[in-house]
Amino acid sequence: xxxxxxxxxxxxxxxxxxxxxxxxxxxxxxxxxxxxxxxxxxxxxxxxxxxxxxxxxxxxxxxxxxxxxxxxxxxxxxxxxxxxxxxxxxxxxxxxxxxxxxxxxxxxxxxxxxxxxxxxxxxxxxxxxxxxxxxxxxxxxxxxxxxxxxxxxxxxxxxxxxxxxxxxxxxxxxxxxxxxxxxxxxxxxxxxxxxxxxxxxxxxxxxxxxxxxxxxxxxxxxxxxxxxxxxxxxxxxxxxxxxxxxxxxxxxxxxxxxxxxxxx
Length: 264
Ligand SMILES: Nc1ncnc2c1ncn2[C@@H]1O[C@H](COP(=O)(O)OP(=O)(O)OP(=O)(O)O)[C@@H](O)[C@H]1O
Ligand SMILES: [Mg+2]
Prior knowledge:
This protein is of the alpha/beta class. The protein is 36% helix and 21% strand. The chain has two domains: 1-71 and 172-264, 3-Layer(aba) Sandwich (Rossmann fold), CATH 3.40.50; 74-162, Rossmann fold (3-Layer(aba) Sandwich). The chain has helices at residues 50-57, 79-83, 102-112, 117-130, 146-159, 176-193, 204-210, 244-261, and strands spanning 8-17, 24-34, 39-43, 65-70, 87-90, 164-168, 196-200, 213-217, 224-228. β1 and β2 form a beta hairpin. The radius of gyration is 19 Å and the shape is globular. Bound molecules: adenosine-5'-triphosphate (ATP) and magnesium ion.
């Protein structure tokens, strides 16, 4: 990481919803810097503003005050830059289109970028193979399992080669075994591609397995109140889950989080 420029930089970021007397202060003020290639996990109590932060980063929501900048390496003033989102987002509920085939779902972002159909199909198929879904290119999402649908969502997000990957509790709906498998797959993938990733989870274990840094947020309006760097060298594998360091760090994070989760 010789690059001094952060991929994402947020300063004095806040977001409120509604107007007084019904105003909800959802987020901040929050400072956040994510370096290129870094995998940052965010944990925090329900309703503290995690999804709000991610939606601001994805360009789906405006901040109330402050700024959030994403540094893109795309040249300015090109059609590609305007069509492309520097960030790709993956939601908890997959967010894939049931009326499109698996391949068309994966191709979706490429179609928006007007990538020629043949190139787009080839790239989609590459990702489907990587995600173990090659045989399902022409299937429809309704015929897939939850884990397979989530893989489609991951393939779709990564096919556009985003500069920033935003994941909002992507594995929350899955059973524990499948979740572990997808965590290990994501670990492998991001260590290969060095995709800058901002990942929200309620699972401390997930955060510790995946993250270069784990940030703990306060109760609403969410601010960052603690930061831990899991001391596990890369490339890592899921085996670190069984180490005493892992268990100790998980306990420490849980203590921090519990203070925020219990209403005063
Ligand atoms: N569009 C909206 N209009 C009004 N209030 C909203 C809106 N979106 C979020 N909020 C409020 O902002 C606060 C933060 O919501 P957000 O969804 O960001 O929390 P979260 O940390 O993602 O929670 P969870 O862990 O349960 O997903 C909540 O109080 C929520 O009710
Ligand atoms: Mg949320």
